[in-house]
Amino acid sequence: MFAPKSALAALALIPALAISASATAQPQTPGMQNLGEIDVLVAATMGAEVGQPGGARALVDRRLKLKACPVALEITGPDMGAAAVRCPTLGWRIRVPLDLAAEPAQASASRAPLQRGAAGLGQEGIKRGEPILLTVERPSFSLSRVMIADKDGRVGEVIPVRDEPRGKPIFVRIIEPGRATILGN
């Protein structure tokens, strides 16, 4: 008795599937948080899979070593383009960047409070002394920090900002009212 060619082809794929599954599976180190669990929880909470609009931009970096959380993880967001995952008992927290590009109307509506009118600049700038959100976004992570503008500026201009009054200034480009990015982004 001979098996049909399609059955033989399927049998030939079994070793390849086993190899690819073992290559993508994270070895579970005792006492360390399962990062795949974080990926699944973020996808379930955000309602979209990794790489889809509304979901995480990428899987959580497998080089990350977090102690295993003894209680349920808390997930909040989206906030500033990321979901925050934290372990309330151990105190660790990570931010998982989200792909929110498919929701421009919702994103611009949520930023409307940042677009308050600055005297003399209308909707297009920032005044000296006002807080500005400095963001750096890469495919697998995003960082953000509130800074203080050292001088007035409009969208597209480069201005100095500081994190504290006596801190060293850094130069940033204003990308929209209330938001900036480092030069080179």
Topology pattern, helix = H, strand = E:
HHEEEHEEEEEEE
Q: Which secondary-structure class do the elements indicate?
A: alpha+beta
Strand % is 25-35%
- Biggest beta sheet attributes: 5 strands, mixed, barrel
Give Rg in angstroms: 23 Å
- Rounded mean pLDDT score: 74
User: Biggest sheet, strands in spatial order?
Assistant: 5-6-8-9-10
Uncertain ranges? 5-26, 103-123
Count of discrete alpha- or pi-helical segments spanning 4 or more residues:
3
Principal-axes geometry comes out as elongated
- How many extended strands? 10
Q: What is the number of domains?
A: 2
Helix content: 10-25%
Distance between the termini: 64 Å
Oligomeric state: single chain
How would you concisely characterize the structure shown here?
With about 180 residues, the chain is of the alpha+beta class.
